[in-house]
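User: For a reading group we're discussing how well predicted structures match intuition. Take Acetate kinase. Before you show the prediction, I'll give you the sequence so everyone sees exactly what went in.
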Amino acid sequence: MKQSILVVNCGSSSLKLALFNGKEEKLASAIAERLNEQDAFARIDGSDRPVPLPGSATHKQALEALVKAFQEWELMPEAPTAVGHRVVHGGETFREAVLVNNDVVEAINQCADLAPLHNPVNITGIEATRKLFPGTPQTAVFDTAYHQTLEPHAYLYALPEAYYRDWGVRRYGFHGTSHHFMVNEAARLLGKTPATTSVISAHLGNGCSITAIKDGISVDTSMGLTPLEGLMMGTRSGDIDPGVFDYLNSQGMTLADIHKLLNHNSGLLGVSGKTNDMRTLCELADQGHKPSAIAIDIFCFRLAKYVAAMMVSLSQLDALVFTGGIGENSVRVRKKTLNHLKLFGFAGNAELNKHNGSHSDGRIDAVDSRYPVLVIPTNEELVIAREAGRLASSH
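Assistant: Thanks. Here is the predicted 3D structure of Acetate kinase, as structure tokens, for the group to look at:
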């Protein structure tokens, strides 16, 4: 039987599937969105044929419908040889990807309080595929695992120790799969080995995080106990004075109101009052919409401040790496961010930047830049597929 690996990524209201062969080639992919809502929909990439879903489809129903479509359309005529799952939060329990068993599912469930919107649906995806493919090895790959190498000075908050000891209040970090992929790809492009490569990796999408990687290992990162800490994001505020919570509460807002504000109605969307899409914001800014221009300025300024902060954890820097939808595609964001970093010796090449590094093996730095600057498309699905294949082969 030919090797095939199914990658399952359950988001809070979405589901993504990707199918890879043994040569790490993507054979098919699909997405379902607006799950648990009346207008839920699903589609297989590259096809105009709809994938029917029941009204207010759940993650389980969407997964079953998409797997059925893969089979009926002969994209996946046989059961996969391995299944890899993205799991958002592994707490301190998981430092690497693991084969799924009942104990692993229970441990993921115990981390649910740290990621209440994601871990429960991640478990739903695991349980559904275990029923669909009972003889297939399942692997869990954790967003937080890569950052378990952080030292206490980087992951502890300035709180009484009991809060960490009793409740696990600490900085965990996220997007670890993407950041791990970045250092490996940067090493390849720079002609080095990952174990001798140190980079600052900026993952910029609707969710944004930045990580200092020293000799292939995460030593600092911007996200914390939850994905709310750190950079300004599409709808998340990022860092904010904790005193704001008390003030907003005194103005009549409930904890739920504040949570919704900071996670769903802030960031690029909140400042611009228009959208969280960077492409649209740039268009609006060019048309003279001042709030959109301000949103972009704040985003780039805060990103540059975090790049500078990440340098504290490194003894050398082989490259600054941009990735994610914004990092890979926004010429303006990269240019503005690098302009803020002139004192540190960063300098961009306008022509290379205009082409997103596609004409230069990812390089967009000027000849006089103190450090290389790279644009590298992320591929978290491939990392998950690799881990699933690796662990399945040892199963």
